[in-house]
TrEMBL record:
Residues 1-15 have a biased composition (Polar residues). Keywords: Nucleus. Residues 1-29 are annotated as: Disordered. The lineage of its organism: Eukaryota, Metazoa, Spiralia, Lophotrochozoa, Mollusca. GO terms for molecular function: transcription coregulator activity. This is Uncharacterized protein LOC106058367 isoform X1. SUPFAM superfamilies: Kix domain of CBP (creb binding protein), Trypsin-like serine proteases. One of its GO terms (biological process) is regulation of DNA-templated transcription. Residues 44-123 form the KIX domain. It comes from Biomphalaria glabrata (Bloodfluke planorb). The keyword Nucleus applies.
Amino acid sequence: MATSMTQCQTDTSLQSKDRESSYDGSQNAADDKDVEIVYKVGYQAAKEWHRDSDLEFRVLVVQQTLQKLFQITDLPDLHNTMTYVCFQIVRDIECELFLNASNRGEYYHLACAMAVELGKEMSKKKSPSGLATEQESPKTKEVETMYAISERCNVKKSVKETPLQLRFDKILENVLHELRIRFGFKLQVSNLDKQSGLLYTGKCADLDKQKQMNWPEPLLKQEYGEFDMESPMESGDPKQRYTRCSKTKEHEKMILFADFSITHLPENLRSNTLFEFIWVFAMITVRIEINTISDDRPKQIPGTEIDYPCSGAFESTPTHGTGRICNVTKHSADNHKFSKFKVCPCERCKSSGHPSKEWGEILIFTAAHVVHDNSEAGKTRCRLFYHSEDDSSEEKYLVGVNVVERDIERDWCRFKCVTCDMDLVEKLESLLSSFFRLWYEVFQENRADSKKHRFTIIVSHPHGYLKRLSLGRWTKRFGAKDVQVPYHSLYHYDAPTCGGSSGATVHFLGKSGGNMHWFDQHIHSGCYGPMRKQSGVGWENKF
């Protein structure tokens, strides 16, 4: 799906009146028109940067582009806007190039280069005398943050020393996480190194303390319902729990994935692209089986007196949720520089004494209340392709290793699983590539009418049983001003769910899509009755 430059520019030039504000969380926010100008110029530079193989020229293009941006527009909130646009440019290029793993390091280097040059220009622009001299330029915390991040990526070093292949699991995830946290939570520079270490040492509780979020009054005053994580006190196998559940009306509205056809879609939305997207979306949705409950789960939901899910449950009590595969990476004993392992760390390899020298690491996106920390992730199994009781030949399992990133307030988590089944890894790579291509296409096709149809899609494993689809409409949207995070939102919707649906990705047609695969998306968090379900806080595409 190699979208042309002209088409991309056309897509980003939709009339402002048909779209919501790009950033409604600040009184000094730039309007859509200004952001579109920034996006177009930055996108052109990024494309030129990608075409030319000379690194020095690429960095020069970025420098010139940012200088041009400062000349053509004077946005009140330019720093936040440019940071966001840098991410968006990288995301869109990744979508166009089918997320080619061999080029990702270069794309992230581009984002970092743009960030540091932005910092330099901000210093010049904030100079009291208007002179472009660093001596007279007061370094703001924002600028210092950009410098600190760029140093970690070696962007400020000479061209010869700048690596093109940056380390995915550590450096790149840290960079994106730090930029995102800086953008949304005003993270102090002094915390950066500590923040980076916390992501990979498993000290999630300390990480949460770094970025406590002040939830808006309207959300806090809502009556909390129940989370859709299956109760650990339920007995019996998944089929028995599903059969005896009292929410029979919810079950009747769900569509067994094995029976799903295009006729299940509303007539005004029926298309092969949307049908294929939902099919692939379902294929990368997994059942999560958590076989231990951490003692470190908080007792209450942050900012409330409501009991946190499974807090105080017996340590060995199993429960279920739902997740989605969001990244797949291959490793081998000869090429494991992006992994902390040297051989496959799965249970079978550990017990065999002859571990495989090839393995895959798969990231799963779910709710923070489903998989809380490393102790739970290490005792988690993900069941793939659980579609039918009659045919179990395709069913596969992934074993959990550790939590990569988590946000309790926004209720999302990414944890890592491993497998040495390389045929499975190849299959998941292919599915994920198709998912992102179709994700971008259905977003572009349906964005203009997203407020009219409000179509909502959930794929989950209620009660840990067979995979089912839930179709409905979103009923209320809380924007950036409500959730106090730029470019983020929270939704209420009526799509049917049940215990075990927690952690399922919620797709809002025309609102979700076209962005980076691990950037925080909306997940199903809980329910307040059959007509009011709630997502976690997720990023929303504005371009």
